[in-house]
Amino acid sequence: MKLLGIISLILTIVLFPPAALAVISNNAAPGDATYPIKRGLEDVIYAVASLTPTSKAWFAAARSDRRFQEVTVLITEGKQAKETLNELVVQTDIAAGQINQITDQKQKEQLINQLSQSIEKYDQGLQQLTAKPSIPPAVLQPAITPSPTPSAETIPSPTPKATPVATVRPTPLPTVQPTSTPLPTVEPTPRPNRQEEEKEKQRRKEIEEARKRLEEIKKKLEEERQRSQKQDNRQETRKEDSNLTPKEHPDKIRKEKQ
User: Fold this and answer.
1) Strand stretches in 6-149, DSSP E
2) Inter-residue contact 96 to 119 (CB < 8 Å)
3) What is the per-residue pLDDT for 212?
4) Which H or E element spans position 102?
5) What phi and psi values does residue 86 have, to the nearest 5 degrees?
6) Are 253 and 241 contacting, i.e. CB atoms less than 8 angstroms apart?
């Protein structure tokens, strides 16, 4: 990504006066006015710098990282990300295909490891985005707030009638006033409306599908790694056999059979 950023800066300087627009569009996401400039610049860099299968595979993987960044921005802002999710998977698959065409086994192994780690990063990032709701607060509607129910009134104690004794007058008892204890107010719980709930379900479904497709690409990379290792082992064996004398060949065959 650093190398891609440096090359982008160089090309923006060479292509001045639109250099300022290109720099501004570097972090653009789908839907932004400068996003087409960003994609156009990527195509130019990919065409100019992809001189070898290794560089072509590296730049293809770098473009996958950019699509993942755009997906993260779109989902975080609650925007539609289906098309960009699909581009992320397609671009990752293209990068894997470019890696398979590399003949240098060491470079191939290194790029397979890098792309596999990137896929793991994509999967973890998408999983975190799935766990976080992306429904904007503006579409939330408060739940019905229950009104406080007063408690039962205390029944006043009856005032007993005083029995006159001699000249002593009865003293009336104080009257107990009824009291009520209000219940604590229940705060309203925001709830998304049905339309936003459906959008949220669809978003989660799209993310899960993208994760499954990325996992399949990772499995294919692992299979290609194993195949390359076997091929490399065969080449090493042939080199060793070519260095053996005619008398040593039967001994080696006998050992392998044992």
Assistant:
1) 140-142
2) no
3) 95
4) none
5) -65, -40
6) no
Check if the beta carbon of residue 130 is closer than 8 Å to that of residue 254: no
Rg for the chain, CA atoms, rounded: 37
pLDDT digits (tens, 9 = 90+) for 151-183: 544 445 555 555 555 555 656 666 656 566 666
**CA–CA separation, 1 vs 7, rounded Å?**
10
Token readout for 34 is 């400068």
- pLDDT tens, position by position, 16-45: 444 444 555 677 889 888 888 888 888 887
d(CA 170, CA 160): 10
> Which pTM value belongs to this model?
0.64
Nearest-10 crossing angle of helices 53-76, 105-131? 0
| Residues sharing a CB contact under 8 Å with residue 150, sequence separation 6 or more, in sequence order | 180, 181, 182
Confirm if 139 and 196 have CB atoms less than 8 A apart: yes
Q: How confident is the model at residue 47 (pLDDT cuts 50, 70, 90)?
A: confident
